[in-house]
Amino acid sequence: MDWTEIIVEVNTPDLDTAGNIAQMTVPYGIYIEDYSMLEQEVLEIAKIDLIDEALLQQDRTKGKIHLYISPQDNPNEAVSFLEERLKAENIPYRIVTGQCDVEGCLENWKKYFHPIPVGQKLLIRPVWREDYDPQGRVVLHLEPGLAFGTGTHETTRLCLEALEKYTFPGARMLDVGCGSGILSVAGLLLGARHATGIDIDELAVKSSVENARRNQVEDRYTGIHGNLAEKAEGVYDIITANIVADAIILLSGTIETLMDDKTVYIMSGIIDTRLEDVLTALPSTLEIIDRYEEKGWICLVARKKA
Question: For the whole model, what pTM was predicted?
């Protein structure tokens, strides 16, 4: 069955805000066409200064956000949500919709996904990209498919930076809302002993298991189909929840049962307007020990109070 492609065109200065809105619309990846800094980005990523003439002719004043809606979802509802949020932010926009098969959607999306350095240690490399230089970084080989989690969005990058800081050899990790498994695999590559990923989407769980295999850590990874942390057992050294504010608020009711006194709880996917809601919902026994922020998105790190 055909998927629906939604293309949102906005002025370049509005791309970040519009992209954040688009990310709330679908649980899997989006991609953004932004040619405003084309020469600099191509040089940084590909290490070349020869650029296709068609790219050089692209409009630098506009950007396009591409979203894909599955046949099971309602594209009209997604368009209505986008229009409502964009108007509320006073962002001029143009929306175009069309049909595409899932393979075509994926191929379009893949064109804009490049190797991404994250933090000081990691490089996220999509498996179809051979043109990359690790530069001494740990390479995470990723095939996200349509599962959420590519490393391109601020929420995932902030979580990865926190993981880099708090992961230690032998750690036991729980990844709530694992998506593509990017956080779980990163934790294992950074030294964790075992990671358990849970997601409500069966496609995401399958994708996470495959990505663990690609990175040769499948023997230390367990993927579980379930809602939030309801199927998690025991306690963990590191818990990640890169989801949305409402889901983090729901998770707050049970998260303590999975933590001991030294457990680090990393929460991301929190837009700044929902920060106070999340903080209010956190158990009083937890305290924030670290905070990361980028473009209106916030990642919190908590631990039980001494």
Answer: 0.72
